[in-house]
Structures are given as structure tokens and as C-alpha cells.
Amino acid sequence: MKSGSSSPFSKTGSGLRAYPLPLQFIGGEWRLGGDGTAGQVSNPATHEVLAEVPRASKQDLDDALAAASNAFDPWRRMSAVDRGNILTAAAHLLRQRADELARIMSLEQGKTLAEAKLEFMLSAETFEWYAAEGRRANGRIMPARLPGARQMVLPQPLGPVAAFTPWNFPGLLPARKIAPALAAGCTMVMKPSEETPASALVLAAVLAEAGLPSGVLNMVLGVPQDISEHLIASPIIRKITFTGSVPVGKQLARLAAEGVKPCTLELGGHSAALIFADADMDRAVATCVQGKTRNAGQVCTSPTRFLVHESIHDEFVKRFAKALGDVVIGPGNSPSSQMGPLANGRRVEAMEQLVKDATSAGGELYAGGERLGNTGNFFRPTILVDTPISAGPMCVEPFGPVALVSRFSRTEDAIAEANRLPYGLAAYAFTQSAATAVTVSEELDAGGIGINSFAVSHVEAPFGGIKESGIGYEGGSEGLAAFMHHKYVHHA
What we know:
By secondary structure, this protein is α/β, with parallel strands linked by helices.
């Protein structure tokens, strides 16, 4: 398929292609990589190869940068209402096609059809919310110091943005960067994950269909390090936004510092869930099962360290294990599946190593702890009990269906353990006490706190970590402000 050809998401006689050919989207055109291929997309449930991934050449990257640069001035001058109308139209297309698109996401990432459809629905919601929020990017007028003077603050877009997104939420995480950036008047060059490219590329396709001008959004594929180094070093790029691991986030921050470019970094975590003696046991168990098996545990805010009051510890573990054992595990595109495979073989190997490290250190393997079947990246939900805090799994984010359960007797000890690590993305507590809820809300070091809930990320609210879990915010008015600078004007 040559440059300028039709979208890989064009419909066939039977609907969308089963898995579309990944193509780069540069300057409003779909193209292959100028430097060959960078790897393959595989179905995590079967290991079937779905497609080869293009590898961007330096010319591809320069073309994307030039397209974003050329499109910036007319895009920022377009009214917020007109920009918002395009985002709203794209949201409508996502909702119309959510069932078909969910099958594509499930094929490349492994998550269940229900989770994949919800992800595209949330992506549509994100587009709509920022379409409206862009109209509220208000400046302000301050009381003047002198008669007849004006003192004003004008919010203006920063400029072309370089965005990098991972494979665990391949539709929603790109949407959370694209929507506020475009609503603010910025243009963008995005590198989605080379392992799950189609879910992000569909966002470019629906935006183009909704009338997005050429060059406003560009998507390139290939080797992450090569692309990030080239894009971030370019003087065209004025803002960097990244979701991924702590080590990679630190490296991108160093690259950005060379050009004094602002960053929004949403990095990893190792979230603690405190289960107090007065917790509603039925609700806590059901919620913890859902939180731990969502996307097979491959969620940056997933609960990992379950700190349970000693008076209910044994009952909680018993009921938690039983409920996890009842979860139906299977291919994501099977309607009966409640948890799909891990996204890649690396995660299966990581789970096996975590179990080995925990048991070698004295932890007890209470449930799960093994691969499921001989085909695909399936792993049983796992409970490890009383793993020493010095063991690797208690310090390194599992990013999979592994729950580390420990007991506590004093609230202050549980909070100290929850805050022990250099991460602070999310933390949780299950309690029926208003006083305890206030205490943990104040004392837990995390960007988001869930009380009797793991829902700490909504489009209308700021989402971001502290310590090594990140810099800046996505979501809410803060997410829009991240793509703007506030120009002060004094008119005497």
C-alpha cells in the first residue's frame, strides 16, 4: 500500500477488516515505513502473527515533524468551537463502531471484548469532554494598577507535541493525550506502541473522517528509542507527554531537559490496598477481584500490595482466593471470558519470576502461580501471602494478575508500608469509618486515593502521580492546561 492510499480502517463488504494493516499516518496520508519493518503484531491468545509493523525512517519522522509544524498556526487560529466540533464528530464515529473496534483491540492486546468496547467508549467520552473544555480555556483580566490600563492573562497552545503511549490501554491512553492537546490548539506527532498499533491508529482514522486538517495529528511506528530521540531533539517539538515505565520516563525527561521542554509523565506504581477490620467483606472481595483481574492486572493503578488487618486476614485471603479461582480465563474475543491473556510473553515470564522470588524469600504461594494451557499468554490469578518486604515482588511493580497479601495490626504501620516505596500513583482503602477514610486520604502518598473503590481515573478529574510515578496531570482542566502557556499582557 503506497503513500496517500485509503485508510486501513476502511470497511470491507463484511465490515472492518479482521485486523487492519498497520500504516503510519503522516500529513493526512497513510504510508508504510521508509525503513522496512520493526517487528510483528501477535495475538496474545494464540501467538498468531497478525501483521508486520512499519519502521519509520528519519525521513518519515522529519515529514511528520514538518506536517505538525505547518499545521500548527492554522489549527491554533481555528476557533475552539470548530476544533471541538471535530473532536465531537470523531467521538460519534467511535461510538458507532465500538463493537467492531473492540474486536481489533482484543486481537492485538488480549483484553476481553467488554473491556475493549468500554475503552473505546471512554475514548469517545474523552474526545467529547475536551471538545467542551476547550471552550472554557479562559484567561482572566486583573484589576489594573493604573487608570485605563489592562492586565490580562491569555492561555495559548504550547506548539507541536511529541506523544508516546504503551500497549496496556492502546486506545484510551492515546485519546487522553490527543483530545486535550488538540482542544488546546496544539498539533501532535504520536508514537503508539508497536505491539498494539491498530487501536491508536483508529483514532487518527476517525479524526480524519471527522474533518481534522492534514498534519494536525501524525502517527509514526517503529523502534521506540530511535523515534523518541529524534522527535524530542527536534526544535519543532515544544511539549512531551509519555505514559510508560519509570526507567523510560526518566530517560525521556533527560532528553527533554536538553531542550528545556515541559513533560507530562505518567509512570508506574505499586499500589497498596488497605483492608481495615470494619470493611464490608463482600464488597471488598468482589471489588478486589475486579481490580486485580482487570486487563489481567496490566494496569498502572492496579492494586498490588493488599494490606489486611490481622483480625480478618485469614477470612479475606480464603474468600479472595475462591473468588479469583472462579474467574473465567480465556481468549479476549470469547464472550464468556472474564480475564484474557497477558499482552506478551515477557509478562508471563515476569509473573513466573515474581512467584519464584517471593517463595524463595519465604512467601507462601496461596493460589495460582502458574501458566494456564500450552497456547497463548495465559496465567492464573495468583495470591502470595506474607512475602517479606525485602523481596523483589514487594518492591517491583508486578504489572500482572499477582496479589501480594500481608497483615497489619496498627493503621500507622499499614500507612507506613503503603508509603514505603518511591512510587505514588494510586492507593486504596476499604473501610466503613468516615474517620479512617479521612486519615488515609490525608496520609497516603499517592496522586489518587480510592475509598471502597479502585476508580481513581476519570476524564473530569486530574490524574497523575507523585515521587517517581510521574510529573503533571492528565484529565480535568489540569489536563488541558498541560498543553498551554499563560501569556501575561500589560496594556498601559
